[in-house]
Amino acid sequence: MHEDGKRVSTAPTLWGINHRAVSDLAKITAVALVYFVSGKLGLKFAFLNQSATAVWPPTGIALAAVLLLGYRVWPGIWLGAFLVNITTAGSLLTTICIAGGNTLEIVLGAWLVRRFANGWRAVERARDIILFALLAAALSSMVSATVGVTSLALGGFAPWNDYAAIWTTWWFGDAVSALVLTPLLLIWITTPLPRWERRQYSEAALALTLVSGISLLGFSGPRADPASQYPRFLMYPASLWAAYRFRRRGAACALFVVSSVAIWGTLHGLGPFASADPNKSLLLLQVWMSAYAMTMLVLGTVVTERERAEKDALTEKHLSDAIVNSLPGIFYMIDETSQSFVRWNWNLEKVSGYSSDEIARMNPLEFFEGPDKELIRARIQEVFAKGQSDAEAHLVSKEGKKTPYYFVGRRFTTATTKYLTGLGVDVTERKRAEEAQARLAAIVESSDDAILGKDLSGIITSWNAAAAKLYGYTAEEAIGKSVSLLIPPGHPDEEPRILAKLRRGQSIHRHEAVHTAKDGRRIDVSLTISPIKDSDGRVIGASRITRDITERKQTEAELENWRHHLESRVEERTIELVLAHKQLQSQIEERKRLEAEMARAIEREQLRLGQELHDGLGQQLAGIGYMISALQTKLESQSAPAARDAEKVEKLVLESVEQVRHLAKGFYPVELERYGLLFALEEMARATERIFGVRCLLQSDESPYVDGKDASAIQFFRIAQEAVHNAGKHAGAKQITIRLAAVNGNNVLSVMDDGIGLPSGAVDESKGMGLRIMQYRARMIGGTLKIGNGPDRGAIVTCAVPTAEWPVSSPPQPQCVNNQA
Questions:
Q1: In sequence order, which residues have a C-beta less than 8 Å from that of residue 609 and are 6 or more positions away?
Q2: Looking at CB atoms within 10 Å, which of 136, 234, 411, 816 has the fewest?
């Protein structure tokens, strides 16, 4: 909004239209339209020349537009000025020159304001307001007046002897417009509306009404009319009230109201500036309006600046208070003359227990007792004399509690007074640390472990009583000597390695070593060595804790002997267990082999029985059926009564043949061997529907063909055969579903029915032969069998076998495949 329009447009386009260009065109059009309308209005007050008027609103409006929208709206100013003048008087050339002068006036004024008067923020400071009036209102307006009047004179539209009068009229019209309208527009557009209370809105309305009323009274009568003379003296107080109470916004509004009323009254021959010459009247009015405008704008800005300064000072005070109150200790400022507190933070009130009013009346020495009071008195005098000092004393609270504090003070000097600014820090924790250090030294001295200190060169710096007892050296004998004194010959690298780790800041925990005592004894020790660092974190030495572990080493040696003994015993026992495990494993494998052989023998016997039923008894019954059929035909040809009986016998024989075939298929599933598992299951489903009169469905995904001669397929078929038989015969099912699918690397066979299901606990407690056989068949092919009830009703039998256990081949093509889904 406030850019100068020099940036290259990067606005997005839609349907080939640049949005920035459209926006700029709209702004230029709006500026041209407003300029034209306000210009035609201003020229209604042109008395000396048709193109020159003392009231010219376009200047103030156009200047505000350029300051707010940027230089890119200048074509709108030129176009508006051109249209105003071409429709008024003058030739095309003079109109072009006048429009150029008006545009140059605005662009120059905006540039000067931006360069020297803070741009569109010129109404925020009194200094900028004055520069705005000099540069934009006074100086740049001369450009338009000079170009415009010169163009009219050169074109023959204005006499040269009236040049000065026309130029003055033109200049005053532009200048006063910039003073009145530009600040009004800038303030209302750039300054957010205040959040007033109802009382403030009422006061603003009253101020506006009062300014309007007094202006109307002052400019509604002749110059000599007493009724209008006296109210004119009240215009300044009323406007000053608006400016004081409502700052820049109030000043600008009051200025606009007074200017509008004054122009109206003067044009009607009323008010103090009315005369026989209307142009002269307007010029006098504009001179007065210039002074009035500067007074109001400067006053409103000064009030705003003062309010801003007060807010800044209050903010600075709050910030200063926040900083002082955030200090870790107590802060105070003491006046040298009165020897009293002039400022302090809330920590002083909290620590001392005194209220703010009590501290304001107290002398700093009242916070101390005994020798501390005299010490603090001397330190305060030292600060004022030398500039700084410090002290450590006990601060006494209102309840009599004494707290150790470290105080530091500095002298602060103003033009007339010296102050002491100080900070006190609670050193209770430091005192406790010192006491803890003393206790630690006592603990070290009384410890049963040998504790010594050394520097980074390996020189012993401290030596406790336990170290003297362990090694036999006194503190006087050990301190100042190298720690290598304790290391036996043959270990020259041990201490340098330890010192290298310490220099890197590393600790050494439970390092076991052998040391030598003064009398030559070898001592097994456990070392814990930690680096000692200064306040900057640099390693300056090490603490060394040494514990005698000779007895522990002896115990460990005994335990090691016992460990070897136990390990030998465990090894012997482990060998025995491994041999027993191998024997058991061989027995299990033999049992599995026998079970598999038994299963194969059973399966072979079933196949043999099925073949004998099919090839023996089945063929005999079929032959009997043919003979009976022939007998029936012969009896019928003889019209013998026994023909009907022969027909019945033939039906019974055929039914027996069919039953024998079904029994043979149960023992010997020919379809399984010829066409694979899926085709055999389809035949089973159709047979179940014929035998039990229930609906039997087979569902299968695109599972691979399984050779019917494979053991896995035979066992799957037998499990499905047993489950379907149980569902059709015992469960009272109306529908049985056989599903064969590949799930998560397993081939899964499921048999589901909608029968009565299994009673609660029946699966776990069942000892039936059929269930045991199905479970056994599943184990034989490396699978698992699960039996349970369905989610709604009926039972579900599921057998899952890993796919890796299932050989796959390509199926032969049966004569007819009817896969029900």
A1: 667, 668
A2: 816
Cα angle 582, 587, 588; round to 5: 95
For residue 348, give the 3-state DSSP assignment. helix
Judge contact between 820 and 682, C-beta under 8 A. Answer: yes
Total number of residues shown for the chain: 821
Work out whether strand 735-743 and strand 695-700 pair parallel, antiparallel, or are unpaired: parallel
Q: Positive or negative CA dihedral for 578, 584, 587, 589? A: negative
Q: Give how far Cα 586 sits from Cα of 91, 582, 583, 589, 599, Å.
A: 127, 6, 5, 5, 20
Cα distances (Å, whole numbers) of residue 521 to 326, 374, 759: 62, 62, 84
- Bridge partners for 547 per DSSP: 526
CA atoms of 292 and 297, how far apart (whole Å) = 9
- DSSP 8-state code for residue 617: I
Phi-psi group of 544: left, alpha or beta (phi > 0 → left; psi -120 to 50 → alpha; rest → beta): beta
Q: How confident is the model at residue 63 (pLDDT cuts 50, 70, 90)?
A: very high
Q: Helix/strand/coil (H, E, C) string of 198-219?
A: HHHHHHHHHHHHHHHHHHHHHC
Backbone dihedral angles phi then psi of residue 652, each to the nearest 5 degrees: -65, -40
The rounded distance, in Å, linking the Cα atoms of 422 and 681 is 101
For the residues of 133-153, what is the DSSP string, one character each?
IIIIIIIHHHHHHHHHHHHHH
Amino acid letter for position 337: T
Name all contacts of 768-775 with Cβ < 8 Å and 24+ positions apart.
770/722, 770/726, 773/718, 773/722, 774/718, 774/719, 774/722, 774/723, 774/799
Q: How does pLDDT run across 241-271, given as a tens digit for each residue?
A: 777 777 788 888 888 888 888 888 888 888 7
Check if the beta carbon of residue 771 is closer than 8 Å to that of residue 793: no
Q: Quote the CA–CA distance of 245 and 560 in Å, as a whole number.
A: 99
Strand partners, 543: 453, 530
Element (H, E) at 568: helix 550-612
Q: What is the pLDDT of residue 805?
A: 56
Q: What is the separation of C-alpha 660 from the centre of its chain, rounded to a whole number of angstroms?
A: 79
